[in-house]
Specification:
With 326 residues, the protein is an alpha+beta fold. Among the domains are: 58 residues, no CATH class; 107 residues, Chitinase A, domain 3. The chain is built from 11 helices and 9 strands. Strands 5-4-7-6 form a 4-stranded antiparallel sheet, sandwiched between helices. Strands 2-1-9 form a 3-stranded antiparallel sheet. It has a two-stranded antiparallel sheet with strand order 3-8. A hairpin with a 2-residue loop joins strand 6 and strand 7. Helix 2 packs across helix 3, helix 3 packs across helix 6 and helix 4 crosses helix 6.
Length: 326
């Protein structure tokens, strides 16, 4: 990406115009300043922003105030670290002389295309990410190089876990080897709209609650009409979930309701909820034979992740990396 330059003949400018030009240059510098260096490659703020902003938009819905600022800073660090790791991996792939054929790129694009119901939705998603046909193809090419690198340097060196490995893990974690208690619930959500609107939010959820308790059998219809959650199209149905899947405040209410019981309105960081439990299943212990295939797959993935982290650490240790985000 080329940095925008403003060529000024200062002697022809009035003081007012000069100040405007300086402000414009400062804005461009903020957009395009270097936020990190990875060996001889730089990462610009504009490249970072393209990755960070969509993630922050989604993340920001869940936090507010001091928690939002703290979470934003942590997220910035995480996103920048991810970009740096991607640069290191791609640089290593190039150094190793890893190549990708046109046929492999076509196949990779085809696999991604098949995830979308229509060609239009596929193209819309590419456009939404700011990609053109050319740089989308180049991105796929780079990703395939990194996949080949990981297969060569990591996956090929990780042996599948043995029967003994899986059985030993099962014995060491036998109490956890089962289906946990689960509930199936519907909910209605009124999202928090800010400190100045808390009373309005409370009044809105209370009005919905009054309607629900009059006709609890129509909870799904009320969710479709009033809920501000994506589950509204399913009548508020969140499916089945275990402890640890939802935020603590939500779980405390849901797991203490009987089937068909409706909660009073309560608040989480997402906003105000009304919950109705529509199903429940107790915990069940599972035998080794029932879980061994899943265990072996899990142990293999765990070892892959450990080797991947070791490989990344070695790349960082042998590289020149500097960050200047804040």
């Amino acid at each position: 990406m080329k940095r925008n330059k403003l060529n000024l003949k200062i002697y022809l400018l009035s003081i007012g115009v000069l100040l405007m030009a300086v402000a414009a240059m400062a804005e461009r510098e903020v957009v395009d300043r270097v936020v990190a260096r990875v060996n001889d490659e730089i990462i610009l703020y504009s490249e970072f922003s393209e990755r960070f902003n969509p993630v922050m938009e989604e993340y920001g819905r869940f936090l507010e105030g001091a928690d939002l600022q703290k979470g934003k800073n942590e997220l910035k660090e995480n996103v920048l670290d991810q970009i740096i790791d991607e640069k290191l991996l791609l640089q290593k792939a190039r150094l190793e002389g890893i190549t990708v054929s046109d046929e492999e790129i076509d196949q990779g694009i085809g696999e991604i295309r098949n995830r979308f119901p229509t060609e239009m939705e596929f193209k819309d998603e590419i456009a939404r990410q700011g990609l053109t046909g050319g740089n989308f193809r180049e991105n796929i090419k780079d990703q395939l190089k990194v996949i080949k690198l990981i297969n060569e340097k990591i996956r090929d060196g990780v042996s599948p876990p043995t029967e003994e490995d899986a059985r030993n893990y099962y014995m060491a974690h036998e109490e956890q080897m089962g289906s946990p208690e689960q509930v199936q619930a519907r909910h209605i959500l009124v999202r928090s709209s800010g400190e100045n609107s808390l009373e309005e939010d409370k009044e809105k959820i209370r009005e919905i609650y009054e309607k629900v308790i009059q006709s609890p059998e129509n909870f799904g219809e009320f969710a479709r009409e009033y809920s501000e959650c994506g589950s509204a199209v399913r009548g508020g149905d969140l499916g089945s979930f275990s402890r640890g899947d939802m935020v603590t405040e939500f779980e405390e209410v849901a797991f203490n309701l009987d089937i068909n019981e409706v909660s009073e309105p309560f608040k989480t960081r997402f906003g105000y909820h009304i919950v109705k439990v529509i199903g429940r299943r107790g915990s069940e212990k599972r035998s080794y034979e029932e879980v061994k295939d899943n265990l072996k797959n899990m142990l293999y993935q765990m070892e892959m992740e450990r080797e991947y982290e070791r490989f990344l650490r070695s790349l960082r240790d042998e590289s020149r990396v500097s960050k200047n985000l804040f």
